[in-house]
Amino acid sequence: MANDKEVKLDKLPEILAQCNYNSVARIPLRKYPLSPRLFFNEVFIFFRFIAYRRNLFAISLFPKFYETLFQIQNGHLFALYRLFIKNEKVPETSLQYLPLNDLENEGIVKREGNKYWSQFRIVPFNENIYITDPWDRNIPNFVYLSYDSLVFCDLAKEEIKGRRFQRGLDMCCGVGILAIELSPFCDCLLGLDINPKAVDYARMNCEINSISNVAFKDLDVFAFSEEHRYDLIVANPPFLDAATCGVLNPIDSYGGENGFEISLRIIKRAFELLSPGGELHLITRTYFCDKQDQLLTQLRSLLIDNIFFEVNYTYLTTSVENSGLTKRVYRMVYLNMKRGVANRFNIRTRSLWYDWSNFF
Ligand SMILES: C[S@@+](CC[C@H](N)C(=O)[O-])C[C@H]1O[C@@H](n2cnc3c(N)ncnc32)[C@H](O)[C@@H]1O
After folding, report:
1. Residue 5 within a domain
2. Distance (Å, whole) CA 295 – CA 317
3. CATH number for the domain harbouring residue 331
């Protein structure tokens, strides 16, 4: 963990709840260069900002504009946004209403001269808050939480709403956001991640959000041997390809040479781990070569030998996107695979309120 002293979380949830911290999620965080299609997206961002809805991590043409509006409306809360979302050093004078000594004693913030900074990013999502690393891949064992984590939670909740599962499994759980958000739908849930620091965060996030039916283990999902079967498996695994990641191939986002190798291995693992009637929900990215979806091609051949699985393969973007970093064309995919009685394949195209273009 980035912190050199033990982190206590006795006071943090109460302090943030009193400040109405979750409303900082109205501010879009990411700036994108001017392009005509993003003007359309901006209309939604503006609406969500006005209607007190979530914009966090969204792509905006003018994040500074929203920051300024927010600062005028609520200067105190804006200081918290700078401290806990942007991980900036914030003058003590802007944070006077916070019990800074308590937060310092809990190991959340540190003092430097007359400024304070937070060693963690604190992401508000729905009624919960999630502690994670600041956005800096130079941090050793960097732990990931971003836009796709939030979008996946929304999509998965929509897909499973009104149903109840006995045993859930979150493969590649990161800070535990999927497991925690889906815990109301399951009797118990297990989250696995190869990065021990991610698992530390996941346990902290359970504690901070008072979740009691979720456990986490630091384990490679491919070394995980289990006699139990699961009726819900979720995964937001690393899915960037070598061309997008460069030479570093970070553990949080490198999904293999083509980006979807880890996703395919997870799908194969799910063939073994799903109970009858059980289902896998997975978000990943595919790319196209000669107009052929490369992940889909490989998935079809996998299914030939696994005839009792039904797959809903949903494109999350209306159009095929070029990442800007490489010449490849990519599409985000939400896959729902059910262990049923027949082999079926549906391909749907879904348009989101979110615009994923250039995002990955
Ligand atoms: C893109 S992050 C997503 C984290 C989380 N699911 C979310 O949605 O925020 C992918 C995660 O997969 C983990 N990971 C990568 N390879 C893994 C493996 N073989 N076994 C378990 N976890 C793995 C990484 O440590 C990272 O936390």
Report:
1. no
2. 16
3. 3.40.50.150
